[in-house]
Write a structure and sequence with these properties.
With about 230 residues, the protein is an alpha+beta fold. Helices cover about 30% and strands about 35% of the residues. The chain has helices at about 65-70, 95-110, 120-130, 140-155, 210-225; strands at about 15, 20-35, 40-50, 70-75, 80-85, 85-90, 170-175, 180-190, 190-200. The relative contact order is 0.10.
């Protein structure tokens, strides 16, 4: 990303995943994030933790960042909505582009790991075999129809549901060895629709909680957010 190392602030901490594995944090850096497309944009500065681990993502915006944007995200629809001064801003996901970036990163990593002792003839042979495996792609009417359906699907309302005053709501709690989660649910037409979701990675003494304490902690986190 061509970011100067002078902007990185050292920090003595570790990042824990849902599996309990930890990764040392190299530092913290403030970056300006532009969300959405003009004119419906939001510009904020966030502090990002730098971790040297293999991941499908270059940057991850956590719950703190989403709260700062006042954003409502739907992973099911691959879309995020947030308020701006002149309307609602949108950030849409593109799985096709994400797969292309992932495949490209894998090829780059494979190229970097090539043994320097391999001769030029072997490399040229590998490139020729790869060229033979390329399939010719043609954009047909069926492809266009599928693409239009995908655009319509992505622009549909988010999965998160709006509660109706006076109706009964249900709070589901989930715990694991390294995290707690809670989701607020409403029922409509024999379907359960999520209203709000929150999760937190356990750190320090929190990891030694008993299961009943973890459930109580998950309830406390949900109460604070709601």
């Amino acid at each position: 990303m061509e970011i100067s190392g002078d902007r990185v602030k050292p920090i003595a901490s570790s990042l824990y995943g849902f599996t309990g594995a930890s990764a040392p944090v190299k530092g913290i850096i403030p970056l300006t994030v532009v969300a959405g497309e003009a004119p419906h944009q939001a510009v904020h500065t966030f502090d990002f933790l730098i971790v040297r681990v293999k991941s499908s993502y270059n940057e991850i915006l956590g719950q703190t960042g989403l709260n700062k944007l006042q954003a409502v995200a739907s992973t099911y629809h691959l879309i995020m909505k947030f308020p701006t001064s002149i309307g609602v801003g949108l950030v849409k996901g593109d799985q096709i582009l994400a797969r292309r970036c992932y495949v490209a990163s894998c090829k780059i990593e494979e190229t970097l790991s090539i043994d320097d002792q391999r001769d030029e003839k072997t490399l040229r042979h590998s490139e020729a075999v790869e060229a033979l495996n390329i399939k010719i792609f043609e954009w047909t009417d069926e492809c266009q129809t599928s693409f239009d359906k995908l655009k319509e699907y992505l622009t549909s309302p988010p999965l998160l549901s709006k509660p109706i005053p006076g109706e009964d709501l249900f709070l589901y709690l989930a715990i694991s060895e390294s995290a707690v989660s809670a989701v607020l649910i409403r029922e409509q037409d024999e379907r359960q629709l999520p209203i709000y979701y929150v999760s937190k990675v356990l750190q320090g003494a929190e990891q030694r909680y008993q299961n009943t304490e973890k459930l109580a902690f998950a309830l406390l986190i949900a109460a604070r957010k709601l």
